[in-house]
Design a protein that fits this description.
It holds the Pfam family Glyoxalase. The chain has about 280 residues and is of the alpha+beta class. Helices cover about 20% and strands about 35% of the residues. The radius of gyration is 18 Å and the shape is globular.
């Protein structure tokens, strides 16, 4: 978890808009294993450690279903502390018979993929030791190999599952964007991340502190894809944590030079990327 803490810049929380708050809360507590931190009729904050929110669900009635071929969330990725934790989660997921969409060995990590009831993509993963990651010319070697599920399951039993461990964090987020060049400029020249992997001209991964990625950006929904409708199921925003107020302000200054849209209200700073994804810049 060293890559999701000071002095790195990293993603800490995602906020989702749902038309069925009760259903969403039930999924994230019973299937994902998070617990309720704060709750109101219109909002639920979920946590792993009982103190810090990792996910916020906001209710809005009359929403359209999640729209295809738009910018916004591809998936958010919850990082577990160990391979054994991922193993026990997989035991739990198979026990619930919740549908799995994929399971991959990425060399740097092992991951399980599925979607919540609103269609939001979710990755639950565990990193391999960072000293074993392979780097060439500043790029980290990654792959999408088949997960060796039986080997992973042998690390634990269903009895080991007790919900998300307290030191679970938001590991990274992967976004659909409308233009990869514009997105790269915003997130690197503006927010201060570094490119660590490119996949042709359709996707790239960026991070700070030598992580395999804190953010993924892709145009798989098509170049020029438009942002979701305001009255549809969607990601509202995600939060990026900076090491200190000075570095956050430096990022805001760089964004302003790029012509990016920013909003400051007291200590809250919001920025919109060129594809309409809103980011809370926090310390």
């Amino acid at each position: 978890m060293k890559f999701q803490q000071h002095p790195n810049t990293f993603v800490s929380k995602v906020t989702l808009l749902t038309g069925d708050l009760k259903r969403a809360e039930e999924f994230y507590t019973s299937i994902i294993g998070l617990s309720v931190l704060n709750k109101s009729p219109e909002k639920v904050s979920l946590t792993a450690d009982g103190a810090h929110p990792i996910l916020t669900l906001e209710q809005q009635n009359g929403l359209l279903p999640r729209e295809p071929r738009r910018t916004g969330l591809y998936h958010f990725a919850i990082l577990l502390p160990s391979r054994k934790d991922l193993s026990s989660f997989l035991h739990h997921l198979l026990h619930t018979q919740y549908p799995v969409q994929g399971a991959s060995d990425h060399l740097v990590s092992e991951a399980i993929y599925f979607a919540d009831p609103d269609g939001n993509g979710i990755e639950i993963y565990a990193d391999r030791p960072s000293e074993n990651w392979q780097w060439t010319d500043g790029q980290v070697e990654m792959a999408t190999n088949t997960l060796q599920a039986e080997d992973l399951l042998s690390e634990s039993t269903l009895a080991d599952w007790r919900g998300m461990p307290a030191d679970t964090v938001m590991g990274h987020i992967h976004l659909h964007v409308s233009n990869l060049v514009d997105a790269e400029r915003f997130y690197t020249e503006g927010l201060g991340f570094e490119v660590v992997t490119r996949y042709g001209n359709q996707a790239l991964f960026i991070s700070t502190g030598g992580y395999h990625h804190h953010l993924g950006l892709n145009t798989w929904n098509g170049e020029g894809a438009t942002k979701p409708s305001e009255n549809s199921v969607r990601m509202v925003s995600f939060t990026i944590i900076y090491p200190n107020a000075e570095e956050r302000q430096n990022a805001v200054s760089r964004l302003e030079k790029l012509g990016a849209e920013t909003i400051t209200k007291e200590d809250m700073i919001l920025a919109a990327d060129p594809s309409g994804n809103w980011i809370h810049l926090a310390v």
